[in-house]
């Protein structure tokens, strides 16, 4: 997150990709990836990651745990 905050998009992207390898079901990682791509003006890729993050929030087994995340992404 620090890399994203300081606008170091390349390092932020690498960090979030590493996080995704560790946990492919965390919607917040996909949200942060979307922010990186949005800041790089790659809006289509940003939408793809946002959509995937939102879809992860709708999983029945984790929906209550991710309701705040869903609101943040939305």
Describe this structure in words.
- Helix 2 packs antiparallel against helix 3, helix 3 runs antiparallel to helix 4 and helix 4 packs antiparallel against helix 5.
- The two termini are 19 Å apart.
- This protein is an all-alpha fold and 74 residues long.
- Helices cover 72% and strands 0% of the residues.
- The protein contains 5 helices and no strands.
Order of helices and strands: HHHHH
Q: Say how many strands there are.
A: 0
Mean pLDDT: 82
Classify the helix fraction into a percent range. Answer: over 70%
Uncertain segments are none
Largest sheet: none
Give the helix tally: 5
Taken as a percent bin, the fraction of beta residues is under 5%
Given the helix and strand composition, which structural class is it?
A: mainly alpha
Q: Rg to the nearest angstrom?
A: 12 Å
Question: How far do the termini sit from each other?
Answer: 19 Å
What coarse outline follows from CA principal-axis ratios?
globular
Task: Reconstruct the topology from this structure.
Elements lengths: L1 H4 L3 H14 L4 H13 L3 H15 L9 H7 L1
Helix pairs in contact: 2-3, 3-4, 4-5
Task: Write a brief caption for the model.
With 74 residues, the chain is mainly alpha-helical. 72% of the residues lie in helices and 0% in strands.
């Amino acid at each position: 997150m620090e890399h994203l905050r300081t606008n170091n998009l390349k390092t932020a992207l690498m960090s979030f990709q590493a996080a995704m390898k560790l946990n492919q079901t965390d919607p917040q990682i996909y949200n942060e990836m979307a922010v990186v791509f949005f800041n790089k003006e790659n809006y289509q890729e940003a939408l793809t990651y946002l959509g995937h993050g939102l879809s992860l929030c709708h999983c029945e087994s984790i929906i209550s745990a991710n309701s705040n995340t869903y609101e943040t992404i939305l």
